[in-house]
Amino acid sequence: MSTARRVVVVPSQSISHLIPMLELAAICLDRGLEVTVVVLDPTLTAPAFRSTLCRYASRLPSLSVHSLPPPPADHQPLEAASAAAHPFIRMQAATRSQAPGLRDFLLSLPAVHALIADMLDVVSAVDVAAEVGVPGYLFFSTGAATLSVFLGLPSLCSRSGGELKDLGDASVSFPGVPPMPASHLVDGVLDSGTDLYGTSLDVFGRMAAASGILVNTFEALESSAVAALRDGRCLPDRATPSVYCIGPVAAEAGEQEERHHPFLWVLRAPPSSASAAGEPDAALSLLPEGFLARTADRGLVVTASSWVPQVEVLRHASTGAFLSHCGWNSTMEAMGAGVPMVCWPLVAEQWMNKVYIVEELKVGVEVRGYKRGGLVTADDVDATIRQIMDMEPECRRAVEERLVEMKESTAAAWKEGGSSRTAFAEFVNQME
Questions:
Q1: Who contacts 47 (Cβ-Cβ below 8 Å, separation ≥6)?
Q2: Mutual orientation of helices 195-206 and 87-97 as an angle, nearest 10°?
Q3: What is the C-alpha to C-alpha distance for residues 367 and 375, in angstroms, rounded to an integer?
Q4: What is the C-alpha to C-alpha distance for residues 351 and 359, in angstroms, rounded to an integer?
Q5: Does the global pTM surpass 0.90?
Q6: Are 305 and 280 a contacting pair, CB within 8 Å?
Q7: Tell me: the pLDDT tens digits for 82-140?
Q8: How far, in Å, CA of 333 to CA of 314, rounded?
């Protein structure tokens, strides 16, 4: 009897990356693979990270979880990343500090057929995998269009001859991706005078070193970007790793005070507020005085300390639109539920996702008048929600038809013979 193939999964510290990574672990277990999730020393992770991991460990009894030991107190990457450093720099320092522990753990196992690291852990985890002779893969928890951009950013920055931030809203293009304003690129590459610039480009530049990249998308959703990746157009000067589109990998299942549409507002206080000190009503303190009483007949405000059942909410028959920051998890869940999006991007690749949702998929609208770093007014939100909720019948039919198509394509991707099911089988087969 043959021994099951073992996969080691290394998530990042971000909970928005952790959940799809653990769902990927569940898929691996369901296909007969042995899975060990390797996490950072608990002192380097947040309580929400640890509680989410415990929840999945209870749901998946065959899942093995290994916590790495604390790094030495004088470890250079951690010493170099001060408390004032950008969170991405601190995260990179934390993962790199755990590289020796990850290497020792991999060497202690009888056999490892593949290591799958989060897309942002390429510098540490994939390097360690290569060192010990294990194929190192990346799980790219956002879409193929963003992967095309990330692979192309080092080249764009090297040939730009200036600061990308100086381009403002001038259009930039990447293979298989709709043109977008330069200002919509991730913060880390806009200003070369920051430490974040070098750290970001180091991560993006090393992605091509992976043995392969598993992408949280499916071919029918991003056919142009997927074709560009597979044709090698995103990396014309070097080989592109094998790309496996295995999505959707997601969890199973704004101010509207004086407006006309009923609403559900999931409100979470920022970490710097009193909620971090354990006060349950800290989120409610952010609301205007009397807000709950004035909106009681048409609105529901839910305070959340960590997570909410977003998939169930989106699939509810009463949900007519989804006001979202355009994170890729939320985007995939909206597509699966067939719900149009009101796009209010905030950070990271969310601005690029907004372009794709509005311009390519045409299943959402962006908050009117909103510029990066600017203030959004109640009137801005109201006008945008009216645009999508009160649109003309002909326009609504076109959006609904597109959403039905996306919903059906999402469901088909993992069915027998579906593109994502086939791609995952190809990934597993190459381990033999």
A1: none
A2: 50
A3: 11
A4: 12
A5: no
A6: yes
A7: 666 888 888 888 888 889 999 999 999 989 999 999 998 888 888 999 999 999 999 99
A8: 8
